Amino acid sequence: MPIISIRDLVVEYDGRRILDGLNLDIEHGETMVLLGGSGSGKSTLLRQILALEHPKSGSVHVKGTDIARCSAAELKTLRRSIGVAFQSAALFNSLSVEDNVALTLREHTRLAPSIVDLVVWMKLVVVGLADFGKLHPQELSGGMKKRAAVARALALGPEILVLDEPSAGLDPIVAAELDELILLLKEAFQMTVIVVTHELPSAFRIADRIAMLYQGRFCSIGTRDEIKASQDPRVQQFLNRIPGNIAKAPAVAAYFEKYVHTPEANA
Amino acid sequence: MATVLENVGTKTIEHLDYVGSLNIQLWATLRAMGSALPFLGNRYRWRATVQQMLQIGVDALPMVSLMAICAGFILAMQGASELRRFGALHYVIDLVSVGFTRELGPLLTAIAVSGRSGSSFAAEIGTMKVTEELDSLRVMALEPVEFILAPKYLAALITVPSLSIVSNFCGILAGGLFMFFSTRLAPLLYFRYVLDSIVLRDVVTGLIKSLAFATIIAHVGCLEGFRVRGGPDSVGRSTTNAVVKSTFLVIVADAVFTAIFYLTVKS
Questions:
Q1: Are A104 and B131 in contact (CB < 8 Å)?
Q2: Of A180, A242, B12, B90, which residue is 20 to 30 A from B233 by alpha carbon distance?
Q3: Which value does ipTM take for this structure?
């Protein structure tokens, strides 16, 4: 049975369809990369998986439970098994890095403070921030913030790790370091990892399977090799970085010429 | 005509929606308040409550005291200029002591706290929303109402009445200074007259008003923060709205309470 199962998922904002009948199964221990351009619906899909929003129709089952229709207690239990690192890291600026990581341990477990400190240190070691625990988020670089967010997501030892645009805005070296960290986590903790990204090198480095979103629908789902070999023009356009609707200079000139002759422009 | 009716209808629905949201938030907070209590609740939540009490109460103490002293002088001087003509200068004592305990002490405190803390609640929560920190709390199975709102509300319920008592004392003290310098009335005699002029009911009604004002300030400030949509400009708007709406509602609530107390005394 898949750990996450998405069936006929439809999401609309103010009558505008963002996700249009998505179906996807994510297996235990799999790294699934949700790939797609800006506005394709990747982050919206992620918010549905995390039950931060409700769908118009369809369902998302996490560990067999419909996450949008379960009770508050069931949702709380499910969320404890999911670790999330947001695109903006979303660390609490009023807390130190250590306290950010310790937050869920203090709230959801009865561990002694010394054990909490030990677990926090271990998580920070995994992400390479053991010496930076006392700092506050605003004192960290972009890459360090993302790693701290991963450490916080790992705090409760989740079965599912969700990473939203982990390498966005980072230089290629730091982005590659994060990719290696994701691979290490998957190997060390046997987690199911879901990564939302539009960074191709990162996607092809870490993915077991890739689901490519285009205008709210999956245009291709497969392994790295299957995606590379896909003949779908939308996949090819994305992989080969072919520009879409761009303004051509003569067309822009013609538009302005037409505009200056309108009564509106001459009023 | 249709447009006017449409606008009136839209605004009415918006205001009803706002009042409904305030009520829902209030009940949700009351249900979560147990976690912020000392000994019985979560110790981290109580620690957050104490921190909030310092910010709302202790930090506002100099400002509230100074405002009350100035208002006490103003009330005494304005009252004296009229009452002197009727040879009833000693009624200044009644005016200041009853005026402050029933009305001015709680109202001045509420206006000061609304400006300082109501705006700060809206800005803090609004920023947390923009930076995905609220989503981050939810996916960590922590409810923002319990985690953020309950400590703020409990702190406001404790500190606003306490500040009102300080405000009453400072206002009455200012009246005493005025009486000493204008009529050479001995301070001890002044305080004896003050104790003769006020009754317990005056103090209790003032404190009941303070509790209502604390509820309005905390909930309007937090609701404005939770309603932030978009970017930093929206945070700025919510901060302004928090101060404007909470000050307006405090004065409306004051009028309602005063009318109730007036009618109950008359009957």
A1: no
A2: B12
A3: 0.83
